[in-house]
């Protein structure tokens, strides 16, 4: 079974309790325990962006240090999402540092602000099993390959590999089709709301 | 406990998926979770490039490292706590010393029934800018070097004797008002114990000015000899850090506060023609950072007013206004935009 909304909400509340406890006591071990829970995710994201094991490890440590300050400074509503944004920011900044040795501080800070404000919304497809009319309409307007992938994945409950076999395309192509389709659907929905 | 299990569970799932040891429906569930959570999705993309043993090794190493970091941070915190303690103790000791000489002075004043109030503000005003920085640096220094606390009691006495020496020389020149001057004199001497030798001249100046002043103004007040209130303000004076000022600000910064307002504002359902509205509220920030006394400056209706007050009251706390290093009650205003 994929994890349910209830369970996700429970996790979120649990994280918030731990954050509260950390803010109250300043106990690093509380924050450490919380961080450890998501450390493999942080490490994975760092690997994806920095493409290098040792850099990614350094990043995981500096992100924890950042956390000890930011967790007190900022109001956190959803720790996991927040951690994702912090992690991504850190990696993007590292990449920029690499590409231009002469660092432009003002630029980074602006960028960080923008990203910080970005909040992660769940895609309507992932959120609920019931589809709105608008969403259904948008799905029919997708390109054929994207439409097939969405239908097979979300309604026929096939895994990437099976979809690839059925459509005679690679597994990677399935994944990117689904991602692109989701992005297109979001754009389509936003237009309808206007 | 449950966190540990969950942490391993998800990682275990990733390994299993990469190892191709899942059934098709298990694969689907895993992929569905990935699609739902962009964090896991991207992490999976990164992790899938490594072997299982590599990932396990790296995570284990990170556990050890972050554990070490935690300990060193703890030590740092301990040191800083200790430093604050030392500063507090030496600070209160210093105040205690001052308090002693204050009460000594006031007792003498009452004995001789000398009106003191009129002269004191003048003397004080003249010297405050020089005095206060000395006080704070002294406290800081003694915090760094705890030996200083041992020397501190001696310093005020030194200052005091010097002051009374100059007093004697002054006595020769002044004929009638010598007793009154004694009272004036001690005010600066007490406040600048360590600086006394250097500021001798300025003290003499102040004394002569205030003496001249005194002869002109007849002093009426006997009841003003009650010094207890003044002593308190003087003590506060010693804690001040001139120039350290700050306006009240929401905890976490103003951008975060704005996003709090945007996210939580609810458009009142009772409004007939919903359109964009703004409400401006003004409220006080208490010394402890709690918004109080919320007053509406501009509002299109009662429903909006209520919602605005609810948002401010339930919202984040603030950092209070700082004046000369001391938190005071401040005031601020906020605009809230209602979008239908």
Describe the structure.
The complex is a heterodimer of chains A (194) and B (340). With 194 residues, chain A is mainly α. Chain A is 79% helix and 0% strand. Chain A has helices spanning 5-25, 28-50, 53-73, 79-99, 105-117, 124-127, 133-140, 144-155, 160-167, 171-193. In chain A, α1 packs across α2 (28-50) and α2 (28-50) crosses α3 (53-73). Mean pLDDT of chain A is 82; it is low at 102-119. Chain B has 340 residues and is mainly α. Chain B is built from twelve helices and seven strands. Chain B has helices at residues 2-18, 24-36, 38-47, 52-112, 119-144, 148-151, 154-173, 178-191, 196-216, 228-239, 254-264, 302-314, and strands spanning 249-250, 277-285, 291-298, 318-319, 321-323, 326-328, 330-338. In chain B, strands 3-2-7 form a three-stranded antiparallel β-sheet, with helices on one face. A two-stranded antiparallel ribbon of chain B has the order 1-4. In chain B, a hairpin with a 2-residue loop joins β5 and β6 (326-328). The chains are: A mainly alpha (194), B mainly alpha (340).
Termini Cα gap of chain A: 36 Å
The SS-based structural class of chain B is mainly alpha
Shape of chain B: flat
Order of helices and strands of chain A: HHHHHHHHHH
Major sheet characteristics of chain B: 3 strands, antiparallel
Q: Taking all residues together, what is the mean pLDDT of chain B?
A: 66
Determine Rg of chain B (CA atoms, Å).
33 Å
Helix content of chain A: over 70%
């Amino acid at each position: 079974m994929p994890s349910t909304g209830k369970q996700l909400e429970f996790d979120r509340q649990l994280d918030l309790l731990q954050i509260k406890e950390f803010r109250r006591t300043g106990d690093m071990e509380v924050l450490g325990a919380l961080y450890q829970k998501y450390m493999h995710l942080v490490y994975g994201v760092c690997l994806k962006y920095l493409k290098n094991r040792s850099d990614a490890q350094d990043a995981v440590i500096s992100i924890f240090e950042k956390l000890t300050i930011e967790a007190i400074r900022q109001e956190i509503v959803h720790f996991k999402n927040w951690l994702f944004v912090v992690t991504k920011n850190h990696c993007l900044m590292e990449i920029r540092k690499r590409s231009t040795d002469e660092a432009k501080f003002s630029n980074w800070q602006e960028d960080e602000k923008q990203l910080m404000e970005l909040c992660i919304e769940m895609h309507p497809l992932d959120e609920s099993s019931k589809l709105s009319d608008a969403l259904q309409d948008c799905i029919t307007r997708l390109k054929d390959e994207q439409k097939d992938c969405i239908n097979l994945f979300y309604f026929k409950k096939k895994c990437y590999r099976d979809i690839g076999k059925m459509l005679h395309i690679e597994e990677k192509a399935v994944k990117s089709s689904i991602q692109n389709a989701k992005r297109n659907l979001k754009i389509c929905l936003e237009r309808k709301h206007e | 406990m449950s966190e540990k299990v969950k942490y391993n569970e998800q990682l275990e799932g990733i390994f299993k998926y990469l190892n191709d040891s899942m059934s098709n429906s298990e694969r689907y569930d895993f992929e569905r979770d990935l699609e739902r959570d962009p964090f896991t999705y991207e992490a999976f993309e990164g992790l899938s490039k490594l072997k299982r043993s590599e990932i396990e090794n790296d995570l284990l190493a990170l556990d050890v490292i972050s554990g070490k970091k935690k300990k060193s941070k703890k030590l740092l915190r301990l040191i800083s706590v200790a430093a604050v303690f030392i500063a507090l103790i030496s600070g209160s000791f210093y105040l205690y010393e001052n308090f002693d000489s204050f009460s000594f002075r006031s007792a003498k004043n009452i004995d001789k029934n000398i009106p003191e109030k009129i002269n004191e503000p003048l003397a004080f005003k003249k010297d405050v800018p020089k005095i206060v920085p000395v006080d704070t640096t002294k406290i800081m220094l003694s915090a760094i070097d705890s030996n200083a606390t041992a020397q501190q009691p001696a310093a005020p006495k030194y200052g005091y004797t010097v002051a009374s020496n100059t007093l004697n020389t002054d006595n020769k020149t002044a004929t009638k008002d010598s007793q009154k001057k004694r009272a004036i004199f001690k005010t600066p001497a007490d406040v600048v114990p360590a600086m006394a030798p250097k500021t001798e001249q300025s003290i003499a100046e102040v004394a002569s000015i205030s003496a001249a002043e005194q002869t002109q103004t007849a002093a009426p007040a006997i009841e003003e000899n009650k010094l207890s209130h003044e002593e308190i303000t003087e003590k506060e004076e010693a804690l001040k850090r001139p120039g350290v000022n700050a306006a009240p600000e929401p905890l976490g910064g103003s951008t975060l506060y704005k996003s709090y307002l945007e996210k939580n504002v609810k458009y009142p359902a009772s409004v007939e023609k919903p359109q964009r509205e703004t409400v401006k509220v003004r409220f006080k920030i208490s010394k402890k950072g709690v918004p109080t006394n919320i007053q509406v400056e501009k509002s299109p209706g009662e429903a909006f007013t209520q919602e605005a007050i609810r948002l401010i009251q339930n919202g984040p706390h603030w950092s209070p206004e700082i004046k000369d290093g001391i938190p005071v009650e401040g005031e601020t205003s906020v605009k809230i935009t209602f979008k239908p």
